[in-house]
Amino acid sequence: STAPDEVSGTDGKTSSVLSGFRMKWLAVPLAAAAAVTVIVLLVLNNAALQNYRGEKLYSEQNYGAALKQFAKAADKGNVDALLKLGRMYETGTGVTQDQKKALEFYRRAMKLGSADAETRYDSLRRSMEDPSAGYCAPPPEGASDEEMMAWNGMCL
Questions:
Q1: SS3 of 63, please?
Q2: What secondary structure letter does DSSP report for 140?
Q3: Cα separation values, 24 from 10, 29, 31, 79, 82, Å
């Protein structure tokens, strides 16, 4: 005899009606989790793509368009975009120089675990507190070897 929640199959074996019911309910959360995972990956990939576009525009010196792409990627938590925005505001590349905004972008990247952002944040903050401390802004993006040598000579 079978239990009230079991049924006999044509092969003579019994199976639980409840276990089949449970399996269907388990499939719903698994499908939802898979859908959420796909959405998260799309958002992250979209942020990486926006950052990539920003880097390309930046290298073409199209700073206004690059800024927009970096801002979109940064809003999605892309650390590289946050660092680039911080650097743009720190050096005044394509934007009005604003060290407070630079600190804010570095701080946001720090919260996401960026050691580079922490270094840049601390250095910039110290220079703002004590301008005579000898702080030197990072060299310009794409600087030639000669420009790098000159920058190193001024900043060391």
A1: helix
A2: P
A3: 22, 10, 11, 40, 44
